[in-house]
Amino acid sequence: MASILPGEDDCFSCCAGLVMLGALTLLVYQIMKPLLQYYPQQEPSPDIPPGSRGLPLIGETVQFMAAINSGKGFYEFVRLRRLRYGNCFITNIFGGTHVFVSSTVSAKAILNNDSGKFGKRYIKSIAELVGNQSLLCASYQHHKLLRGQISNLFCTNSLSVFIRQFDQLIVEALKGWEHRSTVVIQDEALEITCKAMCKMLISVESGYELEALQREVGNVCEAMLAFPLRLPGTRFYKGLQARKKIMSIIEKTMSERRRGLKANEDDFLQRLLREEAAAVGHGLTDEEIKDNILTMIIAGQDTTATAMTWMVKFLDENPEVLHTLTKEQVDLGRKTWPKSSSFLTLESINEMTYASKVVKESLRLASIVPWFPRLALEDCEMEGFKMMKGWNVNVDAKSVHLDPTVYSDPNKFNPSRFDDGGGYSRFLAFGMGGRTCLGMNMAKAMMLVFLHRLVTTYRWKVMDQDSSIEKWGLFSKLKSGCPVTVTCINKDAILST
Ligand code: HEM
Questions:
Q1: Topology versus the membrane, per the UniProt entry (predicted)?
Q2: What is the pTM of this model?
Q3: 3-state secondary structure labels for all residues of 14-76
Q4: 141: burial class by Cβ within 10 Å (0-12, 13-18, 19+)?
Q5: What is the mean pLDDT of the segment spanning 134-155?
Q6: Among 199, 306, 437, 448, which residue has the most ligand 1 atoms within 8 Å of its CB, making it the best to mutate?
Q7: Ligand 1 center to 188 CA (angstroms)
Q8: % of the chain at pLDDT higher than 70
Q9: Which atom of ligand 1 is least distant from the CA of 434?
Q10: How does strand 392-396 pair with strand 96-101?
């Protein structure tokens, strides 16, 4: 999961005043609007990417904050500039220079980073929330070490176990819909994905601890886009307090495990502790384990829930796709329902050919993580322009996904465009290179299980067609949450399990 808001670590605190200005954006924007129109643009230089650096010091921060605060979402800021300036443009936000790049060739070069010219970009305030030992913030060597250890957890065996656990959770949740006429997909999906992450990572399944984790992880996520002010009552302060509570739950679980309690659990924590005990100098430290457990809960829940919500909306708008999908899933279901234990398996997931394309197309069109922030570690050249050391270079994945020269008729929801497999460097929903999403297969599996159970158990219809985006969301989330009417059409599918 990428940190969405770009920023300049070193000057972050001295730019705090500017960010504050941005937070009062509507007021300021109204005052400055006329000024912005008349402010002369910098003389374009053939070496430097086209674009506007905005006002001195403030740059285009106000316009960026206005986009975050609008119903169109923060990506609107990038979309408008990409339309105006093309595949590579420059801007200035939060006191830092940002370049956005949206060609497949440059995306591949930056994300694969064979030249070693780009580092991961992150904001200090986000590092405080997820922890500075998190994969999301680790620098090159440390990241390599952490990733090496953590990626072992995402093996095929873990995926098989996870699919069954996730299906159980979905079936349980769908049973609860039987006597309801409407549900809000975003809320339901978030509850299920958070439960799934807590179970997979530390075997917390119910009770006080699960409730506390669900609540506090939500508070950490909300604090990620907040102004980093440590005053009681602020969102950022609430996020830091929430982090402390989550850490104490993980610490308590770790100490129980070390005392031999629940040591038979086969969750990610237990496996990391086992590796730590067995390793000669290479196991993860307690801080690394704790920060990365929190990172994985955060990285896995909201992203996947948001993707599921968009998928439901796209299917509702495309009845012919829904029809083909339902047929595939009902045929598959007929093979499993009569059996006594009929939870989905990795094998059944692998049979979902059309559904996999629906998932991929939903991820393309929604582009949940719209751009991936990187830092130029030295001067270099990109798209024929100079990039200077210290600039933020953002790979604009959403523009690649919506580029008509890359995907024909890009705004159409058409899963069949992936009949040929889809092209490695064109599909960027999970990133690319050494920082590719670790939970990619789990995320896809969750979306497939959810799809299967939804279309084979319920007839449903989206009630609110509004496509407005939630303000201040970490990802492009539907403001409505996507409420749907539901009618159970196949009790056997959920009751026989
Ligand atoms: C639909 C759901 C998801 C989407 C769209 C998504 C997207 C992404 C993207 C784009 C990145 C790379 C960002 C970059 O290069 O800057 C990433 C990284 C990451 N994701 Fe996901 N993700 C999803 C679900 C998950 C799940 C379920 C997990 C696991 C529990 C997970 C764990 C991670 C981790 C640990 C990283 C950091 C990898 C690293 O820096 O080495 N993600 N994700």
A1: Single-pass membrane protein
A2: 0.90
A3: HHHHHHHHHHCHHHHHHHHHHHHHHCCCCCCCCCCCCECCCECCCECHHHHHHHHCCCCCCHH
A4: exposed
A5: 92
A6: 437
A7: 21
A8: 87
A9: 41
A10: parallel
380 is in an annotated binding site: no
Q: Could you give the residue ranges of the DSSP H alpha helices within 279-318?
A: 286-317
Amino acid at 405: T
Q: What are phi and psi of 482, to 5 degrees?
A: 65, 70
Q: Tell me how far apart the alpha carbons of residues 410 and 417 are, in angstroms, rounded to a whole number.
A: 10
Q: What is the CA radius of gyration of the chain?
A: 23
Angle in degrees, CA 315, 316, 320, rounded to 5: 65
Q: Which amino acid is at 448?
A: L
**Mean pLDDT, rounded, of the chain:** 88
Residue for token digits 């984790």?
213
Q: Name 357's Cβ contacts closer than 8 Å, sequence gap at least 6.
A: 415, 416, 418, 419
pLDDT of residue 281: 57
Q: What is the pLDDT of residues 403-436, one digit of tens each?
A: 999 999 999 999 999 998 766 679 999 999 999 9
Amino acid at 50: P
Pick the residue whose CA is nearest to atom 32 on ligand 1: 439
Helix (H, G, I), strand (E, B) or coil at 263: coil
Q: Mind listing the pLDDT tens digit for each residue in 443-486?
A: 999 999 999 999 999 999 999 989 999 887 778 899 999 999 99
How do residues 40-87 score in pLDDT, each as one tens digit? Answer: 445 567 799 999 988 888 899 899 988 888 888 889 999 999 999 999
Q: How many CA atoms lie within 13 A of 478 on its CB side?
A: 26
Ligand 1 atom at shortest distance from the alpha carbon of 428: 10
**What separation in Å is there between the alpha carbon of 35 and the centre of ligand 1?**
40
Tell me which residues have their CB closer than 6 angstroms to ligand 1. 1-2, 135-136, 147, 295-296, 299-300, 303-304, 307, 368-369, 372, 429-431, 435, 437-439, 442-443
Give me the amino acid identity at 176.
Answer: G
Structure tokens at 177: 């819909």
Q: Following DSSP, what letter does each residue of 154-203 receive, concatenated?
A: GSHHHHHHHHHHHHHHHHHHHHTTTT-SEEEHHHHHHHHHHHHHHHHHH-
DSSP symbols for 352-400: -HHHHHHHHHHHHHH-SS-EEEEEESS-EEETTEEE-TT-EEEEEHHHH
Q: Predicted ipTM?
A: 0.99
Question: What's the number of CA atoms in the CB half-sphere (13 Å) around residue 216?
Answer: 22
Which tokens sit at 3? 């940190």
DSSP β-bridge partners for residue 396? 371
| Distance from Cα 305 to the centre of ligand 1, integer Å | 13
